[in-house]
Amino acid sequence: MGTFLFHEIIFGPVSSRRLGISLGINLLPENSKLCNFNCVYCECGWTLENSFVKKQFQPREKVRLALIEKLSVMKNNGEKLDVITFAGNGEPTLHPDFAGVIDDTLLARNTYYPKARVAVLSNATRLNSDSVFNALLKVDDNILKLDSARTQTISLINCPNNDYNKEEVIANFMKFKGNFILQTMFVKGHFKDHDFDNTTEYEVESWIDIIRKTKPKMVMIYTIARDTPLKNIEKISLGKLNEIARKVELAGFKTSVSG
User: Fold this and answer.
1) Is the dihedral of CA 212, 218, 220, 221 positive or negative?
2) Does 48 map to a domain?
3) Which is nearest to 124 in space by CA: 159, 92, 85, 89?
4) How many structural domains compose the chain?
């Protein structure tokens, strides 16, 4: 099937492994990926070196009108909706008016589907921005990524921009005082002449130490389900994911597992 991009602002609804019936919002360009990570497993493919040159974000008003139109049609058709999810072709919090878009989305949700949740899938790199941080406090599911406690593993799996600081990200997690969901993708593979495997005992125990420190309200544990840009990635078995989840639960935290 290959990796793919979302060619619309509003996409779906789709049945999400982790979230239920989800209506997606793509704030990024429709024909290219825009992200400050370059994850080896990203369903949208590799981040191109020139992706930040033009930075063509979707205008706030265009997003608002597209969402209202879609929600109105869905409600009139009697369709079910569990969650409105910010995902799409890269990192949604890079949008210069992310906070305003969140406010518009919450208002539209309250009007058409007041019982639906609003979720943001983020790599947590923009938490130093007060506007982004405060916007994430407003959503129902503030889902933040950390795929490893080890900087070397992060550099292989996520390939972040040079200004990424793991300790800073962890400190920002703590500022949410538990009002966030930690999301971790478990994978094995080989990249840049190095093996990576964030399922080893050392990796998992170090990662659980961060969970104890940051105290998320939920930990999402999952593995690849679609094609990936790096071709030699190994999908982790459901049994192994459940084993990791049990360790997290023994530490006192709720989990959800998607194999």
Assistant:
1) positive
2) yes
3) 92
4) 1
